[in-house]
Write a structure and sequence with these properties.
alpha/beta; four-stranded mixed beta sheet; binds adenosine monophosphate
Length: about 300
């Protein structure tokens, strides 16, 4: 590994049901925090804050054990784990939520250990903004660098709480349609500027196959997507991107490297069903993809 400082990360740990346009379907371990941890875990120490039910599959537990550096704040509660079902549309981007069953997530009350409260980096994965605020309020006052992800559901249903989160974070990651929805305007650059006025200094807009763009006070830049061989399942791409991005940031690398690392980790994720794509991500294969992306940016 490296000189990474610890990243405390909160998000969902789930059992997913996925239906893809090519007819592939099935149950798999998922959740925003699981993808994040699987992607970031070989690059940086990830300290989990989350909850699972007593029904959580053994293979999921093995992933958390292997890729998280601390499970101190992982709660295991009597009852069912969070379950989410999604069906992708023919464009492989839009998706319909088939069901969301909160299970033990419904009564989840995160309690951060002293070590986690003092972490210099905090990732607020996609969960209810009230839980994101709860975790934020437990961090020591000196303040960590906070990176946050969200989704349409929260923008539509809990806008006020989300606005409170935005006031307290440094970097927001979201996709194009979410940016436009949150800002209430069309056009990604205009939306990003408006969102920056709500709190976060930097916005990273994820544009799927078109890559990702950073919007910062001094401008920004775009990084193309990695040319994958075959798109198998887009689930978790955003969380995996966040994992690579934060791993770079936690090593004091530039935001440009952050976008490149995020792009590389997300590219592994979408090449397999559920978490299978990330199985092919090793330090070596990750490094190879980062080199390709870096070389492309250096070309005139
Ligand atoms: P992504 O494709 O990056 O948006 O992440 C997909 C993951 O988010 C899936 O594994 C789901 O379990 C999880 N997820 C979906 N909806 C929610 C929700 N409302 N709250 C928390 N996690 C969710």
């Amino acid at each position: 590994m490296n000189a990474s400082k610890p990243i405390v990360a909160v998000g969902s740990i789930a059992v997913d049901w996925l239906e893809l346009p090519d007819g592939t379907e099935g149950e798999t371990v998922g959740g925003s925090l699981t993808y994040f941890t699987r992607a970031a875990g070989i690059l940086a120490p990830v300290r989990l804050v989350g909850v699972i039910g007593t029904d959580f599959p053994k293979e999921g537990m093995e992933i958390l054990n292997q890729y998280a550096s601390s499970l101190e704040d992982l709660q295991i509660q009597e009852g069912e784990s969070f379950r989410w079902g999604g069906r992708y549309h023919d464009d492989w981007e839009d998706r319909t939520t088939l069901y969301t069953e909160l299970g033990v997530f419904e009564s989840f009350s995160p309690k951060l250990s002293d070590a986690n409260r003092q972490s210099p980096f905090l990732y607020l994965g996609n969960i209810h903004p009230a839980l994101q605020l709860d975790v934020l309020s437990q961090m020591t006052p000196e303040g960590a660098v906070v990176v946050c992800d969200t989704m349409n559901l929260w923008i539509n249903t809990t806008r006020e709480q989300l606005r409170k989160v935005l006031e307290r974070i440094d970097i927001l990651l979201l996709n194009e349609s979410e940016a436009e929805l949150l800002a209430g305007t069309e056009g990604v650059s205009k939306a990003a500027e408006l969102i920056r006025s709500m709190g976060p200094e930097h916005i990273v807009v994820k544009e799927g196959a078109a890559g990702s763009t950073l919007f910062s006070p001094d401008g920004g830049f775009h990084v193309d997507a990695y040319p994958i061989k075959r798109l198998a399942d887009p689930t978790g791409a955003g969380d995996s991107f966040a994992g690579g991005f934060m791993a770079a940031v936690s090593q004091d690398r530039s935001y440009e490297e952050g976008l490149i690392w995020g792009t590389a980790t997300a590219s592994f994720c979408v090449e397999g069903f559920g978490l299978e794509g990330l199985e092919r991500m090793t330090e070596k294969s990750f490094g190879d993809r980062v080199a390709v992306l870096t070389e492309r940016r250096e070309l005139p």
